[in-house]
Design a protein that fits this description.
It is a single chain. By secondary structure, the chain is α+β, with helices and mostly antiparallel strands. The chain has a single domain, classed as Clam (outer membrane lipoprotein receptor (LolB), chain A). 19% of the residues lie in helices and 42% in strands. The chain has an 11-stranded antiparallel sheet, covered by helices on one side. A hairpin with a 2-residue loop joins strand 4 and strand 5. The longest helix is centred in the first third of the chain and has 14 residues. The relative contact order is 0.24.
Length: 214
Amino acid sequence: MKQVYLALACAGVLSLVGCTSQPKPNTSGVAVNPKMGGAEAAWQERQRVFAQMQQWQLKGRVGLQLREQSWAFGLDWAQRGNSQYEMQIKNPLTGGLMATVMETGSQVTLKASDGKTYQDTDAERLLAKQLKMNLPLKNLQYWARGIPAPTAPVDAVKLDAMGRPTRLQQAGWVIDYASYEGNSAQALPSKIQLEKASDQLKAKVIAKEWKTRF
């Protein structure tokens, strides 16, 4: 059972390309500051556009390293708004379902492959009870898409020439974006590495498919 939760932890630490529905241009009406450099202006635009994203789905593979132990699994993450999602954790070889975690409003449900069900009103607390680890699940829905979470200040960010982050530091985590699925300034990440050195926790995510809807 612990392996199932560790898989969920990695899903939390993670996620993420292939068939992608590209984000639509910004329609917020907020003008870009003309004093900004090209990359910085594109970075601000990326955050505004992605904040309008209503639904997205990613399918990929995740590798998790916790101290001297490691795991790998498949991930299917469907997000609807900011507080409704379903994560399916799958066997990396067979594709069989290992566990599902769902959040709808204020209710979080975790269903394991052994038939056991666990519930709480907070996903991070639910996993912390089982894993004795603090995982930033609320932030991951933003980091997975290559934008900072609005819940904490950004400690540092490095941008490429198109205004996409190559490294983001936030809430004690370092998120490296190794590649994107295309050359658009609003392309979604295809390879991500996340690390929290104080917990000796690392995760690598490879996206096979992204789908988005505004």
